[in-house]
Amino acid sequence: MADRHPAVPSEAIDWVERLHALVDEAAAPVERLAAARLRCRAGCADCCVDDLTVFAIEAAVIRRHHAELLETAEPHPPGGCAFLDAGGLCRIYAHRPYVCRTQGLPLRWLEEDELEEEIIESRDICPKNVDGGPPLEELDADACWTLGPFEQRLAERQHALDGDKGERVALRSLFARDDARRHLPLLRSTAPSK
Ligand code: SF4
Which of 20, 61, 69, 96 to mutate for ligand 1's pocket (most ligand atoms within 8 Å of CB)? Predict the structure, then answer.
């Protein structure tokens, strides 16, 4: 059967794995600074929402390391990320995508207000991690994870690879069984009628 997911060269997959290591390295000091307020624990899956999509190059990392899981296991039922297990743990934790690696940290991002010609900074954090530390607006910038630069690098690599399509893949669609289920009505409709 033809592979239904985009082919990704192995050097691009290697590159994403190195980027993930850099993300972990850069997030570690932010995590240390925020330690007193972080309620992130194994089994808390509030960030693990359903319908997450990632660039095809990140999906390829999961496919490289978890072929058997994707071929034989059931995805988590709709309502939570397909990779959660029954205990609320991630089944691909070591190879989870970028977006999953900084959840729970104090986040900041910059946007340009074209009318006012100024840069606006916004901040946010999981509601469970609000208490136990200074208000977000009082934190130094380096005590927050800045959204943007790593996303930009991933996007540029994906666009360079696929002719600027920026192809994204739904995490749930990586499971063979989920894919088979979605095609079931089609298979039924092609069965010969009696
Ligand atoms: S891939 Fe893992 S860490 Fe990321 S949302 Fe899914 S279960 Fe959570």
Answer: 96
Residue nearest atom 4 in ligand 1 by C-alpha distance: 100
Range of the domain at 80: 10-105+146-189
Domain assignment of residue 135, yes or no: no
For residues 103 and 190, the model is more confident at 103
- Dump pLDDT digits (tens) for 11-43: 999 999 999 999 999 999 999 999 999 999 999
Q: What is the reported pTM?
A: 0.89
Question: Who lines ligand 1 at CB under 6 A?
Answer: 48, 52, 81, 83-84, 90, 92, 96, 100
Q: Is 141 within a domain? A: no
Give the count of domains, the chain: 1
Atom of ligand 1 nearest to the CA of 76: 7
Decide: helix, strand or coil at residue 53.
strand
* Interval 61-99: pLDDT, tens: 999 999 999 999 999 999 999 999 999 999 999 999 999
Residues 6+ apart with CB under 8 A from 111: 119, 120, 122
Task: Indicate which atom in ligand 1 lies nearest the CA of residue 99.
Answer: 4
The verdict on residue 136 lying in a domain is: no
In a domain, 84, yes or no: yes
